Amino acid sequence: MMTSYRTRRVARSALFAALLSSAGGVGATDSATELRLNAMVGDNTAIVELLDRGAPVDAANAFGKTALMFAVEANEMETVALLLTRGADVNARTAAGCTPLTFAAEGGHIGISALLIARGAHVHDRTRAGWDALMIAARHGILEMVEQLLFKGADPKAADRDGRTALMQAAARGHVALLAPLLDAGAELESRDRDGATALLIAADRGQLAMARALLAAGAEVNARDALGASALILASSRGHLELTRLLLEQGANPNLQDADGTTALMEAISTGHNALIALLIDYHANPALEDTQGRTAADRARQHGNHEALEHLAGGH
C-alpha cells in the first residue's frame, strides 16, 4: 500500500510540475490552471473549492483544452460528472477541434462517452482532421462504443479528410466485429477514400485476412479498383499476403486485371520477390505473357529485378 500511495503522490507531483512549467512557473499559476490540474488527477475536493472560489469551469489552456477534457482523458468519471454538473461545456473544442467526446473515444472510456452523450454531446462533431467519435472508436475496435454512438445517431457514412469512413478504419485494423453493426446502420461497402480505395482494398493492402473474408461475405466487389487501377489482388500480391491472395482468387478475383501502369498481380509478386505466390496465381490462370505499359512481361520484370527463382517458375509453367 505504501508503494501505491507514493506512486500516486509522485505522479501527482509530476503532473503539477508539468502544468506549472507550461503555465510559465509557479508565479504564473491561477485558479483555472489549478482546476485543470486537479481535473487530471481527479481531486474533486480541490475542484469544488476552486469552483466555489470562482474558478472558470471552461477556462482552457493554450491548446484549448479544458478541465473537462483533462478529466475525460484521465478516465475520471466522478470528476467528469462533477464538472458537467457545475456547468462545463460538453461540446467545447480544442484548437485541433477535439471535443470531450472525441477524447473519450480515443481513450475507449465507454462509461464516460455514455455520460457525455446523455448530457448533450454532439456525436457528429469532428476534429480538424475530420474524425468524429465513431471513426475514432472504429479505428480502435471499441465495439460497445461503436454500437452506443450508432444508437445515438452517429453517421456511418461520414468520412474524414482522407475520405475514410468508420468502416474503412475498422477494415484497416481488422476489427471484424464492427462490420455487422456498421453495415446494419447504413455503412456502404463500396464507399471510396481519396485514393479510390474501398474497405476491401484497404483490408487487402493491410493483410487483414479475416476482415477481407467478412467483407466478401457481405458482398464487397472482389474486383473493385482504386484510382491507380490496383485491385485487391494486386495489392495483396504486392505485399506477399499468400492466404489473402488465395482467398481473393477463390472468390473470383481476376488475376489478369492490370493497373494504370499495366501491372498485374503476377508482375507485382515477381517484382517484390514474393515468389511463393507465383504458382498460385498461375494455377488460377494468371497470364505471364501480358505486357505492362512499358512492354514488359512478367519474365522481363523477373530479369529486371534479378529474380532468378521467378524465372525458373515461369519457365516451368509454375
Automatic annotation (TrEMBL):
PANTHER family: ANKYRIN REPEAT DOMAIN-CONTAINING PROTEIN 39-RELATED. Residues 1-28 form the signal peptide. ANK repeats lie at residues 63-95, 96-128, 129-161, 162-194, 195-227, 228-260, 261-293. PROSITE patterns: ANK_REP_REGION (PS50297), ANK_REPEAT (PS50088). The keyword Membrane does not apply. It comes from the Bacteria. InterPro entries: Ankyrin_rpt (IPR002110), Ankyrin_rpt-contain_sf (IPR036770). Pfam families: Ank_2 (PF12796). Keywords: ANK repeat, Repeat, Signal. It comes from Marichromatium bheemlicum. This is Ankyrin repeat domain-containing protein.
